[in-house]
Design goal:
By secondary structure, the chain is α/β, with parallel strands linked by helices. It contains 18 helices and 23 strands. The termini are far apart. Bound molecules: erythose-4-phosphate (E4P) and phosphoenolpyruvate. The site of erythose-4-phosphate has 9 residues, from loops. The site of phosphoenolpyruvate (PEP) has 9 residues, from loops. This is 3-deoxy-7-phosphoheptulonate synthase.
């Protein structure tokens, strides 16, 4: 027994993996037995690391046999440990490795039910999570997407926002995540924001509990708020954790985006050497140099990358940027091109990937569920998966089958309550993920009709202090918490100068009724790497939202601060995932079938296909009374259940408690506010929200039953 695993007997097997497979993690002493049992002995790790292992274990129960004849609903691997449980230990598992930095392999279920150990070289800095959509059971996909979104949102709020050029059957998502998961905490270097430093340091000591507790120091002599631009670079810096990279022979190659939308694969230079210029030969992007993945996607070379100055600053920067995702379509053996819409914003939005994962999980749930029903459904499921990422139909078509639910609070004014709400919502979201993709609206900026509290970013103390530096840091912490809770986050983008601080943590955005006519907001939306919904005007006018969608789907340039705070000319490629949000208006509600149909006609006339209508059941559709949301939601449910192929999603304003409460900054004492109750729009309480979610999920299911045509034709009708 390897001395390093001497206390192996203290732990029960947590999961069975093929021979030689190990669990990669940090803070866990992991030994893999020759026959494939993996024991986990947690020593000095963080709670969520152990939870992560359990998460894997829950979905790979040992000793369950797999027979190729039964429909693959859950993959498990039969592995028998040695009687004596001797542990040869894998790389990095030797007792000598005191730093608990374990190399490992992740066992990935394959279509034949066996596992494929995905290689990572010893001491490799990355763990590869391979998400294979159609061949996994839901649980495995859930496990991996849960791991992925947790890892991403926690350590790497970065992801490559992708534009899909080809239909595909299987979503394979290769994401590289840092070795120091959960152990290296950002050292907040935010100038003028000592509080954020405390947040992150507290999070570091508290391990997985994270920390959105807002400890408001009374007499903190905070240094003056730094210039927002300076804040951004230090914010982003502290989010890019220092990576340790011991491997001498990592062949990691990076897909580096360029302004012309192509990717340049580059050899990740050794840490010790000076960064080599990014090579431009047509390269196969291979992960860890392992051949089996090298054909996953190939990059076409072209002119030198101009827009990533930091990519040349150091190998570390390059390594940090090593986030790539690959989709392979089995049907036509075609590889797809990654088409980042805007290289300067190529590294964004961990929840963009997390959203893809939750969509993938939802699709895989659908796939598994559908597969058990009939061949047609099998077609539908592949149609679903294909539809999911078919650029032709835009991001929203896939929601037709899943239904987007954007559960939202009027606005975020208390990070602690927001985090509590997120965890409650996550539970419901998981239950309903086969039908609804639930995102949490996290409005950090509040547009006002005239005056009033303008949101956490502007006034985090709810006192009129307008401490924007702290507001931005707190806003990021809230988004990280929501991501870490496993929910994609949705925001309204109000101040274009604030957008760069948050967009990498946001999976869905809206432009509000007060800014839908604004050319500046339309240009902002054109470069954002996530679906953007345009609210109709407060008057009720819909055309302004349709015009905004047209404008934002076109390529355009705009001035925007970059990570170093300098203004740069952003070349936005145009946002293909734009749509309209019916939020009612001065002329009354517009959630009814006639209004929805009218909106679809106006979008069609403007050249948009697919389903691109979301109904906001609040605001003008509820008369700003929370009960009014129920009526609106019920109408949406009726339309969806009747087979409407137009409604792609809906929004409600919801919080822990029903209603809202007055807040007059500088007059109302924050401590007097009722916990869990909105300080802006009236919200439904969580129970009422849950009932509505169940009703709407049932409507989505009913729609599927009704849709006699193949799924994708229905989406177009
Ligand atoms: O949801 C938020 C409100 O609709 C928005 O902030 C406007 O509120 P007001 O009209 O009270 O300013
Ligand atoms: C301000 C909001 O909506 P609208 O722009 O539709 O008023 C909101 O959703 O918080």
């Amino acid at each position: 027994m390897d001395s390093g695993c001497s206390d192996i007997h203290k732990w029960t097997p947590v999961c069975s993996l093929p021979k030689g497979a190990q669990i990669f993690t940090n803070g866990l002493r992991v030994c893999s037995l020759p026959k494939g049992h993996v024991f986990a002995n947690r020593r000095g790790g963080t709670e969520h690391t152990a939870r992560r292992i359990k998460l894997i274990a829950a979905h790979y129960p040992p000793k369950q046999s797999y027979s190729s004849s039964s429909p693959p609903t859950q993959r498990s691997y039969v592995g028998e440990p040695d009687a004596e449980g001797s542990c040869r230990g894998g790389r990095g598992c030797s007792g000598v490795n005191k730093k608990l930095r374990m190399s490992a392999r992740l066992a990935i279920p394959k279509t034949d039910g066996q596992f494929r150990a995905v290689r990572s070289d010893g001491c490799s800095i990355y763990e590869t999570l391979l998400l294979r959509l159609e061949t996994y059971g839901t649980l495995a996909a859930q496990t991996l997407s849960g791991l992925l979104s947790e890892a991403l949102s926690e350590v790497f709020p970065l992801s490559l926002r992708l534009r899909y050029g080809y239909k595909l059957r299987v979503l394979e998502l290769f994401v590289l995540s840092a070795q120091c998961l959960g152990s290296v905490r950002p050292k907040c270097r935010l100038s003028g924001c000592d509080e954020a430093a405390r947040h992150w340091q507290a999070a570091g000591t508290e391990g997985s509990k994270g920390s959105s507790e807002t400890t408001r120091p009374q007499n903190e002599n905070r240094s003056p708020v730094a210039k927002p631009a300076e804040n951004l670079s230090s914010l982003l810096q502290e989010q890019r954790l220092p990576l340790t990279h011991n491997s001498r022979n990592s062949k990691l190659r990076l897909g580096i985006g360029r302004s012309d939308g192509q990717l340049t694969a580059s050899e990740a230079p050794r840490l010790r050497s000076e960064p080599k210029p990014i090579s431009h030969s047509p390269l196969k992007l291979s992960l860890f140099g392992s051949e089996e993945t090298s054909d996953i996607f190939s990059c076409t070379a072209s002119t030198k990358s101009r827009h990533l100055p930091h990519a040349r600053t150091s190998p570390r920067a390059l390594l940090r940027l090593s986030l790539g995702a690959a989709l392979a379509s089995i049907q036509n053996q075609r590889r797809w091109r990654i088409q980042p819409r805007d290289s300067s914003s190529i590294f964004k939005c961990s929840t963009g990937i997390a959203t893809i994962c939750s969509l993938a999980t939802a699709c895989s749930t659908r796939c598994v569920a559908l597969r058990t029903r009939a061949t047609r459904l099998q077609v539908c499921s592949s149609g679903l998966c294909t539809g999911f990422l078919s650029a032709a139909d835009g991001f929203f078509t896939e929601f037709l089958e899943i239904g987007l639910k954007d559960s939202q609070q009027g606005s975020i004014h208390d990070p602690v309550a927001a985090r509590e709400y997120a965890h409650l919502l996550r539970e419901v979201a998981t239950k309903l993920q086969g039908d609804l993709l639930v995102m949490m609206r996290t409005y950090l900026e509040k547009p006002r009709t005239s005056v009033g509290w303008r949101g956490l970013v502007s006034d985090p103390d709810l006192s009129g202090s307008e401490d924007m530096g702290r507001g931005i840091a707190l806003g990021r912490r809230v988004l990280l918490d929501i991501n870490a809770a496993g929910l994609p986050a949705a925001v309204e983008f109000l101040d274009p100068m604030v957008a760069p601080y948050f967009e990498d943590l946001v999976a869905y955005g809206s432009i509000g009724a007060r800014t839908v006519e604004s050319p500046t907001h339309r240009a902002l939306a054109a470069g954002l790497q996530m679906p953007i919904g345009f609210k109709n005007a407060r008057s009720g006018d819909l055309q302004s939202a349709v015009n905004a969608a047209v404008a934002s789907s076109a390529a355009q340039k705009r001035l925007s601060p970059d990570a170093s705070g300098r203004l740069r000319l952003q070349q936005a490629q145009g946002n293909p995932d734009v749509h309209v949000i019916l939020r009612g208006g001065e002329e009354g509600p517009n959630y009814g079938n006639a209004s929805v149909t009218f909106a679809a006609q106006r979008l069609q006339a403007a050249g948009f296909g697919g389903s691109r209508v979301i109904v906001d059941c609040s605001h003008g559709n509820s008369g700003k009374h929370q009960e009014g949301q129920i009526t609106a939601c019920e109408s949406v449910a009726e339309q969806v259940a009747a087979g409407s192929s137009v409604i792609g999603g809906f929004m409600i304003e919801s919080f822990l408690e029903a209603g809202n409460q007055p807040l007059e900054p500088g007059v109302t004492k924050p401590s007097d506010l009722r916990y869990g109750c909105s300080v802006t729009d009236a919200c439904l309480d969580f129970n009422a929200t849950q009932d509505l979610l169940l009703e709407l999920a049932a409507a989505v299911t009913a729609r599927r039953e009704r849709n006699t045509k193949p799924w994708r034709e229905a989406a177009k009708s």
